[in-house]
# Entry
Amino acid sequence: MELREFLFEPLKGRSYGFTIRARENGILSGVAKLKELAADIGLDVRSVAEEGAALIPGTVVFVARGNAEMVTKAEEMLMGAIGKPSGVATAAADIVKKASPVKVVCGAWKKVGQAIKGELRQAAITGGAGQRMSEMPFIYLDKNYIRMFGEVSTAIGRAKLFDSERLVVAQLRGETQGIVEEARSAVQAGAGILMVDTGVLEDLEVVRAAAEAEGWRERIQLAFAGGVTMEELHNIVTLGPDIIDVGRAILDAPLLDFSLDVEG
# Structure
């Protein structure tokens, strides 16, 4: 007889109600996975808070009943379904608020493991971060496309041959030209969004200054990325980008704390 089976032998036939509550302020995420796991365990679910619910210490997010073994499985599994996603949603909401009115996107969920990719993507969305540079159809030319073509204008020209009407997003690192020259070449070749992906505020500043001085600022959207932190957001926003791409500052957020308690 296994230890848990032995311990619960006198409790056979009994059921127990339990509640999961938040222990800190935040935004709830991971509800779909929470419901899926609860069904797998076989719990009698009484209530579940909605995805995106605002949390304060003591907020009830889940109420259910089950036998002793079900309750212990719930404690092992359910809080893990919402802890990390809720932490990510909370961080995303904080960053979106601080960056307003500049649009925040988070594409770094693509770099995480397949097992949690969907949950973290949804968490960033729940927190208000966008997933795409534009709602219009676009072609994204990242640094490796540009490296393989040798220069940004050649890569953009090839993309335009596929669909001349589609928006082109060019990731700029200033590798084959100075960052301003690369931005200028991208605009002349037909890019619609310039992603200054160096993490260097001075690069964003000089590209924006050139765009304004040379009359092409109104023709493009200007994005910035590269290890963006919460502490940098104010300085980035003052430089006037249209979009800020935030990765680790959202996805590396700590777990939001929850507790599961048997009641009655």
